[in-house]
């Protein structure tokens, strides 16, 4: 991977990449009403920065639309943070800027994130009216004690009410996050939560493992012995039970951590695993156009002031090839291994793929991987132990 300087120095190359096929556009809104105890994302509670961040984002939308010659966008995602803290008039300003700067005529999906306790039915109605057609709700759990332990600002009842409000407002596609590995959480409760969310009208569930690798409030409590994380075996039991239960509820898996009714998969998130191009605007937002990728400054204040400029990186052919199985094997459908071999052969990299094949053979024998004609995919057991397989491509 080679550093090439700021993305502005490569705009002709980036423009060409953005014109090769429709891109995805991600907007990161970093504001939260309160910081969750497990959060290590780029977010802030400093509402004084809201105006500067929004103005910079509007400017970036215009500038990148011009720099890339108004490229075609087929998926749009507004994440955070808590985008539901944006007032509807601000959403309208964002929508107007997007429509004038990018070609949205082929838009298939426009996802907006929201947290219960920060949006009411009127807000959902406003978002729907402005063209946001898919909602991602940060539910996490329907256990009030666990919600308090996580530092969430909403109750279980408010989470279910948010689903109802969104449905009544017109959202036809609703996704919810469900967290696994919370201290004090038991298997039976997680399965009950999953059933309740599906019965409430959720067509997509993202199953997240509580990650305390980075410094956060909850990590401090665990390190101090005040809370105990479930064991790896307990977590594996939960994921295995969800693998069996969610398809029975009509939500088969399409990715390691994501389950959806057929046709309700996240098109935007799928492009990451498929290595399709995307542009990210906002603090800590990542972009990948063609061979090039970069990440915006993480600090909301620095980003709003145009500081901490990102470095554009050029992936080597070997790195780019390795990402095909590294990301593609996360998908339930697997990858076309024969197509990968043909691509590698055309680049003079077939020995690299042959080396992977030897390294993967024990995974096949251990039933972590299975082959069906040209397709290589993780088995249900392999989904539970995916890190042992995917690390071979890092």
Please render the helix and strand layout as text.
Elements lengths: L1 E2 L7 H10 L2 E7 L20 H18 L5 E8 L7 H14 L7 E6 L6 H9 L4 E7 L3 H7 L5 H14 L3 E8 L6 H13 L4 E6 L7 H7 L8 H17 L4 E3 L2 E3 L6 H7 L4 E4 L4 E4 L2 E4 L4 H5 L8 E2 L2 H12 L6 E2 H10 L3 H16 L3 E4 L2 E4 L1 H5 L1 H5 L4
Parallel strand pairs: 2-3, 2-10, 3-4, 4-5, 5-6, 6-7
Antiparallel strand pairs: 1-13, 7-9, 8-9, 11-12, 12-13, 14-16, 15-16
Helix pairs in contact: 2-3, 4-6, 7-9, 13-14
CATH top-level class of the largest domain: Alpha Beta
Radius of gyration: 21 Å
Total helices: the number is: 16
Strand content: 15-25%
Quick one: biggest sheet? 9 strands, mixed
Separation of the first and last Cα atoms: 13 Å
Counting DSSP E segments of at least 2 residues, the number of strands comes to: 16
Note poorly predicted spans: none
Global morphology: globular
CATH architecture of the largest domain: Alpha-Beta Horseshoe
Biggest sheet strand order reads 8-9-7-6-5-4-3-2-10
Overall pLDDT level: 92
Helix content class: 40-55%
CATH superfamily of the largest domain: tm_1862 like domain
When the domains are counted, the total is: 2
Q: SS-based structural class?
A: alpha/beta
- CATH third-tier fold name of the largest domain: pyruvate-formate lyase- activating enzyme
């Amino acid at each position: 991977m080679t550093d090439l300087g700021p993305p502005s120095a490569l705009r002709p190359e980036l423009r060409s990449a953005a014109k090769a096929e429709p891109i995805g556009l991600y907007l990161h809104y970093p504001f939260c009403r309160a910081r969750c105890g497990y959060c290590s994302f780029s977010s802030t509670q400093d509402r004084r920065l809201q105006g500067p961040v929004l103005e910079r984002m509007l400017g970036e939308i215009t500038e990148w639309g011009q720099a890339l010659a108004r490229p075609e966008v087929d998926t749009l995602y507004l994440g955070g943070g808590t985008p539901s803290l944006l007032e509807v008039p601000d959403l309208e300003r964002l929508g107007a800027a997007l429509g004038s700067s990018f070609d949205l005529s082929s838009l298939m999906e426009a996802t907006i994130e929201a947290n219960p306790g920060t949006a009411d039915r009127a807000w959902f109605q406003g978002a729907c009216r402005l063209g946001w057609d898919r909602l991602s709700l940060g539910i996490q759990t329907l256990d009030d004690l666990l919600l308090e332990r996580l530092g969430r600002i909403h109750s279980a009842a408010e989470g279910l009410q948010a689903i109802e409000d969104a449905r009544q407002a017109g959202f036809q596609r609703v996704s919810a996050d469900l967290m696994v590995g919370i201290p004090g959480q038991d298997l039976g409760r997680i399965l009950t939560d999953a059933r309740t969310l599906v019965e409430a009208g959720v067509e997509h569930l993202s199953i997240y493992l509580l990650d305390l690798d980075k410094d956060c409030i909850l990590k401090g409590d665990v390190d101090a012995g005040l809370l105990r994380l479930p064991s790896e075996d307990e977590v594996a039991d939960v994921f295995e039970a969800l693998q069996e239960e969610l398809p029975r509820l009509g939500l088969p898996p399409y990715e390691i951590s994501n389950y959806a009714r057929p046709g309700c998969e996240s098109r935007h998130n799928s492009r990451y695993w498929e290595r399709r191009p995307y542009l990210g605007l906002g603090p800590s937002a990542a972009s990948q156009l063609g061979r090039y990728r970069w990440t915006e400054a993480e600090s909301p204040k620095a980003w709003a002031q145009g500081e901490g400029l990102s470095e554009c990186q050029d992936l080597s052919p070997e790195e780019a090839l390795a990402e095909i199985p590294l990301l593609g094997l996360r998908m339930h459908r697997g990858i076309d291994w024969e197509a990968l071999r043909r691509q590698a052969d055309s680049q003079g990299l077939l020995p690299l793929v042959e080396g992977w094949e030897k390294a993967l053979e024990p995974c096949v024998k251990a039933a972590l991987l299975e082959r069906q004609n040209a397709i290589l995919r993780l088995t249900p057991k392999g989904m539970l132990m995916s890190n042992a397989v995917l690390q071979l491509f890092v």
